[in-house]
Design brief:
This protein has 191 residues and is α/β, with parallel strands linked by helices. The protein has helices spanning 5-21, 42-46, 64-75, 102-106; strands at 32-35, 55-62, 81-83, 87-89, 93-94, 107-108, 111-112, 123-125, 132-133, 145-147, 154-155, 168-171, 187-190. Strands 1, 2, 3, 4, 8 and 10 form a 6-stranded parallel β-sheet that branches. 30% of the residues are buried.
Length: 191
């Protein structure tokens, strides 16, 4: 079956819509690639388009401000896929609550509203030099896939708390401590 360029594009768009309706959303556009020369500048680099991006590749130095920017892009926008493989996290650490903002996700002007998930976040590739994943870093996200780098040494408590769509996590050999009770529905596999 040969499809014309416009027919192929229409077919792929229909597949993306169907997967989205089924809750299996995928990134529908080419990833936006950002190379930072200074940590804390991701928001400046992306500008007003940040909340329209569904797939992001970040390279260069990143810090907690950049993680907050990515959190905001998921919470207030469309970000579903993040590739930080060639990024350098400050202190080789994924910050505590990197993708979980307790007060913004759980409270509004009327008080406590429950734990609102970042269900749009589906896949994250961590920096290849990351050594620690901070406490509750990915709590209440919709992550289905997570690539943990071989450099990883420590996973703090509740780092994947209530990530009930995360089906399998492969723990690298160098991780001596991980909070197994804080993986919801995930199959933990260590070599």
């Amino acid at each position: 079956l040969l499809l014309t360029k416009s027919t192929r594009a229409m077919f792929l768009a229909m597949v993306a819509v169907m997967l989205s309706v089924l809750g299996l959303g995928i990134a529908t556009a080419m990833p936006v690639r950002v190379t930072l020369t200074e940590a804390g500048k991701l928001a400046d680099k992306l500008g007003t388009q940040a909340n329209e991006i569904d797939s992001l590749v970040v390279e260069g130095p990143i810090d907690s401000l950049d993680f907050h920017t990515m959190w905001s892009m998921v919470y207030k926008g469309k970000l579903a896929y993040i590739d930080m493989e060639n990024a350098k996290a400050e202190n080789d650490r994924i910050p505590t609550e990197a993708f979980f903002n307790y007060y913004e996700q759980c409270y509004d002007n009327h008080g406590f509203v429950g734990f609102r998930r970042l269900s749009g976040l589906r896949q994250v590739i961590l920096p290849k030099g990351a050594k620690t994943i901070g406490e509750a870093a990915f709590a209440y996200t919709g992550i289905t896939e997570m690539q943990l780098p071989s450099s990883l040494e420590k996973m703090e408590k509740e780092c994947f708390l209530c990530c009930d769509k995360l089906a399998r996590v492969e723990i690298p050999d160098g991780v001596l401590h991980y909070p197994s009770l804080h993986f919801t529905n995930a199959i933990i596999w260590q070599r």
